Amino acid sequence: MNRHQKEKADEASGQGRPTLKTLAFMTGLGVTTVSRALKDAPEIGAETRRRVQLVAKQIGYRPNRAGVRLRTGKTNVISLVLNTEHEIMSFVSDIIYGVSEVIADTPYHLIVTPYSRSQDPLDPIRYLVETGSADGVIISRTQPNDPRARYMLERGIPFATHGRTDMGLIHPYHDFDNYAFAAEAVRHLAGLGRRRLALLAPPVELTYHGHTLAGFADALSEVGASEIPFNTVSIDHSIEQIRMRTAQLMRRDVRPDGFISSAAAATLAIVAGIEDAGLKLGRDVDVVSKQSSELLHLFRSELLVVNENFRLAGAELARSVLGWIGGAAPGTLQSLSEPGEVQAYRRPD
Amino acid sequence: MNRHQKEKADEASGQGRPTLKTLAFMTGLGVTTVSRALKDAPEIGAETRRRVQLVAKQIGYRPNRAGVRLRTGKTNVISLVLNTEHEIMSFVSDIIYGVSEVIADTPYHLIVTPYSRSQDPLDPIRYLVETGSADGVIISRTQPNDPRARYMLERGIPFATHGRTDMGLIHPYHDFDNYAFAAEAVRHLAGLGRRRLALLAPPVELTYHGHTLAGFADALSEVGASEIPFNTVSIDHSIEQIRMRTAQLMRRDVRPDGFISSAAAATLAIVAGIEDAGLKLGRDVDVVSKQSSELLHLFRSELLVVNENFRLAGAELARSVLGWIGGAAPGTLQSLSEPGEVQAYRRPD
DNA sequence: GTGACAATCTGTAACGTTTCAGTATATAGC
DNA sequence: GCTATATACTGAAACGTTACAGATTGTCAC
């Protein structure tokens, strides 16, 4: 062992985390060879490859993220960008778990990048892109003409949107079919003999507001029911506001006998408003609501529900972003989740 | 300009992200000087310091995280470790926002590290520590003798726990005073004339199970009420299980006339169980429940609630971890949040 | 036996940062 | 006018990784 090798030995045998240098020393190879052996490069002998990988596994070698990131620019990070005021609560937790599930056996980490009402929604995106903090981004509250999607498309950074855009640009997305939801809800209410329907829609600026309205309108004319306008509030409004507006509406002469609600929390407010007006759910009015966890039937057993699975959405979004990062065509990474049937509550035995 | 400087210029004027080298070229200083000027090192002249900082701000210099991390080992990352099965939904979203709020104007990023039922809760912690992926860790579902806290304490990695431990070891935590909650709930129910109380407690393995039980027991003897045992389920059980057990309990001869519930979702199940047994809330039985968002009163207006603010918890936990990272003594980074009064619902005008 | 070529392996440089060990200049002491 | 010392700055090395440009073999054609 010459002086040079001795030095290497001294360095590599340190009890810190193993690095390529450690592996190189242990196997008697150069760091370059080790590096390539670990990533199955073609110019490495089969036996050497196996030997390196065995030793690496034995001593629990894990590539240093900072080293890789500095050298290659690859962060192995997916960022989930969330609005801290308007995001649906169960959405946040479920989508995180969905994403986690998918990236669990990849080297990716999930970072959460929040922004608040006061900020331009583009701010966090700009930050991520400018600082190169993530390989891929997931955004929600998608708009028909979404500056964030446009911005990332321009910079060529992989992303996926929860909800669709409508800019004639192609990018990965996952969406719930809110057109189908609203249409099914209308049909179900019509089937119960309801004729005057009100819709508590998503906020106008989001794409699925349009989808929801379209499904609502199309099905209304299909079944020959009519709309009672209820567009002074959206599911983004406070519980109190929705409750108050609902109560007001229900005290009018011409009041709805059916409600469709795009969010579970808002449904609580609608029901409260209905009861404030002295009316009874299931008798005077029926309500169809989306929900993401099976809790509404406990609230009022008369409620009619359609489930939206955010965990699945998170998983799909993660798959889409990873797919894009992996080189797949953005157009092939789009998915739409069909709503199940409208469910009435069945009392357990 | 000599050849050497020319090279520098060429490199530094590249339109990529500005680095120290860019700043060094622009200011005519060495990278070392620039680096030190930016962190207010003492041996830099006052004017130079100002000049460098001005230029840095002008061109929007941001230190490269990978560079810093590789050189110093500092990740500027806080990891929030979450159980993907048992975490309360609102807890996840609120705590994330609370943490975000605090780290917003720091260089820290928040990464979410999930683990599932099948795993040893120590796994994600080991991963974080071994790979040096975070400067600080936040864990929840804290146990009296918590191997995760012990492990991190041994390795000297800063962390904070949501909930306390009971191992005679000192570390930062934030906790809700569940002893006070249970005691107050008992007193309130006693004040309503309720005499036979049942408690739906947190799962036994968590520290606050003990706190809750102690508060419950102490207040019971204080007010001279008695306990109806209800320990076949905890708030970790499924809605269906809790509902069924509640209904069973309420059909017994000796049944509770008061319930205390440690979680809002579980309360929905308790109420359903009560009603399954043909009894009425507010008449036959009163229920005091914790909640983290103001929704329970919409569910049944007779419900009595105590609010627990998870966003605040997230903020406190983040402050604690950052404090520890910043060198503060762990013992000074502990906080306890006192429950407010038990609230009955007041109908809005 | 020579040249060509493939198959394996290797050293060096670079990513951007901080730290170490200086260097150069000015100021002060005497 | 000399040294000592403080002040302000600097180059080189290192963190762990990958890419580039070789280097060393052995094999084969002829």
What does this structure look like?
2 copies of one chain form a homodimer. By secondary structure, the first copy, chain A, is of the alpha/beta class. Helices cover 45% and strands 15% of the residues of chain A. Chain A is built from 14 helices and 11 strands. A 6-stranded parallel β-sheet of chain A has the order 2-1-3-4-5-11, with helices on both faces. A 5-stranded parallel β-sheet of chain A has the order 7-6-8-9-10, sandwiched between helices. In chain A, helix 6 links the parallel strand 1 and strand 2 (109-115). In chain A, helix 2 packs across helix 3 (31-38) and helix 11 crosses helix 12. The relative contact order of chain A is 0.11. Residues 1-10 of chain A have low confidence and may be disordered. At the A-B interface, helix 5, helix 6, strand 2, helix 11 and helix 12 of A face helix 5, helix 6, strand 2, helix 11 and helix 12 of B. Strand 2 of chain A pairs antiparallel with strand 2 of chain B. Chain A binds a DNA duplex (30 and 30 nucleotides) through residues 19-21, 29-33, 35-36, 39, 43-45, 48, 63-73.
Instruction: State the largest interface.
Output: A-B, 50 and 50 residues
CA-based gyration radius of chain A: 27 Å
* Terminal Cα span of chain A: 79 Å
The number of helices of chain A is: 14
Strand residue content of chain A: 5-15%
How are the strands of the biggest sheet of chain A laid out side by side? 2-1-3-4-5-11
Oligomer: homodimer
Q: Briefly note the structural class of the backbone of chain A.
A: alpha/beta
Count of individual beta strands of chain A: 11
Uncertain segments of chain A are 1-10
- The residue-averaged pLDDT of chain A reads 93
